Amino acid sequence: MTSNVIQATFDGFMKGAGFSKRSGSWYRITDEVITVVELQKSQYGLQYYVNLALWLRPLGEVKTPKEQACHLRTRLSRLDGSEEGRLSSLLDLDVPTPERERAENLLAFLTTHLAPVLEAVVSLNSLRHEAGQKVVAASLVMGPARELLTA
Hints:
Number of strands: 6
Strand content: 15-25%
Number of helices: 7
Order of helices and strands: HEEEEEHHHHHEH
Largest sheet: 6 strands, antiparallel
Strand order of the largest sheet: 1-2-3-4-5-6
């Protein structure tokens, strides 16, 4: 598969944010949380989605968990509802946009909207504070994780 402007911009952002790529997913491992971020392509067209998942290390040790196996899972679009339409069009290659403009706008969006989320999920403590709680509220949360986060 060849990289397109969305994939290239996303990969550049994630690398710059200090994540490492394995099997198509981007990982950041801290003492308490493994953050997994994926760019998922729709099976129905040229649309993409940014998936965010968290593995809470006190609940078990793994090296590179799959996004669907993580304790918390959400999409970037769920975290910023007011900007969902803008994100959708930036992540849709069927929406005609010059490549350079798409790359610049997508990078700006990720910097403004994804970067603070990545900071809010760096530890159990950060997940218990306001920004982290917004992520938790917008996520599917497995039972043991809910207990750990409210402890």
